[in-house]
Specification:
Chains A, B: It comes from Mucilaginibacter polytrichastri. The structure is a homodimer. Chain A is built from seven helices and eleven strands. Chain A is α/β, with parallel strands linked by helices. Chains A and B meet through α2, α3, α4, α5 and β9 of A and α2, α3, α4, α5 and β9 of B.
Chain lengths: 256, 256
Amino acid sequence: MKKNKPTILIVNDDGITAPGIKALMETMAEIGRVVVVAPDSPQSGMGHAITIGKPLRLDKVELYDGFETYSCSGTPVDCVKLAVNLIFKGQKPDLCVSGINHGLNNSINVLYSGTMSAAVEGAIEGIPSIGYSLDDFTLQANFSHALKYVKEIALQVLANGLPTATLLNVNFPNTADLKGIKICRQARAKWAEEFDERLDPHKRPYYWLTGVFQLDDQGEDTDVWALDHGYVSIVPVQFDMTAHHAIAVLNGWKFN
Amino acid sequence: MKKNKPTILIVNDDGITAPGIKALMETMAEIGRVVVVAPDSPQSGMGHAITIGKPLRLDKVELYDGFETYSCSGTPVDCVKLAVNLIFKGQKPDLCVSGINHGLNNSINVLYSGTMSAAVEGAIEGIPSIGYSLDDFTLQANFSHALKYVKEIALQVLANGLPTATLLNVNFPNTADLKGIKICRQARAKWAEEFDERLDPHKRPYYWLTGVFQLDDQGEDTDVWALDHGYVSIVPVQFDMTAHHAIAVLNGWKFN
């Protein structure tokens, strides 16, 4: 059923006060009715975590003039679940957009990112979903160059829909000189951790997680390549994690 | 380089005192040198979360006679990262096993599960990795019927290796009458949430996340089917989330 004005759910993982979600709200307001449900505190790196050991809070807040906005005590994925069930009450929005993330979510980061996991959850709910991220993790990030692409990609998804059980992972290099859009695959890479060991005042050790991004992929069809060359990268993402090509291999094993 | 006694990293998400990890430790000790790194508290539903906003603790603990055991304040994925970097110091273990989870991690649960995400992280690190889960979420779960399969599957992985960038998701029905092993794909399903709304003593609402598993897949090649029919299910899992089949579709879109 086509409606003139689509309903758009906006979520993120940097929290409801992040400049990135404000930029996304203002852009989405140009094309639809916007409902914002975002964490009450930063939730970067929360992946697909959900809150099951303690209860959740969901509060309507007057934070941005003219926007219907809710603050949630849970994870980004919790935000999507609460929105679908308590705010939309099963009447699904036409689009779910997540971000704009302060920092890239290309390559393997799709797994660690709360922003991308919220978009994945939107897709699991059957809502066409997009995660947006910019290569600048600071609060001073400048999203302005990205916004025409943010809008254009959302309009295309609203017009065309997405293949079943897929969503989009959109990343922007941090430049005003964007070369256009590349459809990509997720680059093979990992984080090589280096834990920063310190001693607390009681002389007990504690560790800060830090890491170096380790690319193991020279392909020119990857999101890393596209971003390095000034393009907006779009990776279609799926949440079927089955390694279908490995089924035949395992069927060849002889179990006792 | 083949060694006589493989080194096996054991992790979980139910925490270091869970009966499931004890059963896994005892079984793995029959085939290798075991190192245990597990969360100091239950971390179910943590997905692929990592801890970046606060530091981590890692403590050697004397909890189980004869086992090298560490307790970690972070998520299951943190446990793997800490183990690889601080305990193994880059000298990778020969196998990473996660579980045995109290409760199934079949189908879409692979995304939400800390147990499976720890195994995914092991695979990202290049370690042959397996997640094990039993269909009984109680602390009284009886793992005994599963153990000969747990051992057999680990031995096969040590002997054969796994296809590049894949790992195994192994689930057990809660029965002594196991019919054997089925290699499966992840069933299409989702959780239909029902938030249980309550009022706190100050009359403010809060919500408990509950849900009903909604199967949308009648295939007889899925993990749900195998478990329903008394089989041990093995799904090969990959962490490339690219929807490769959707790339051509998106390349057909005309962007302005």
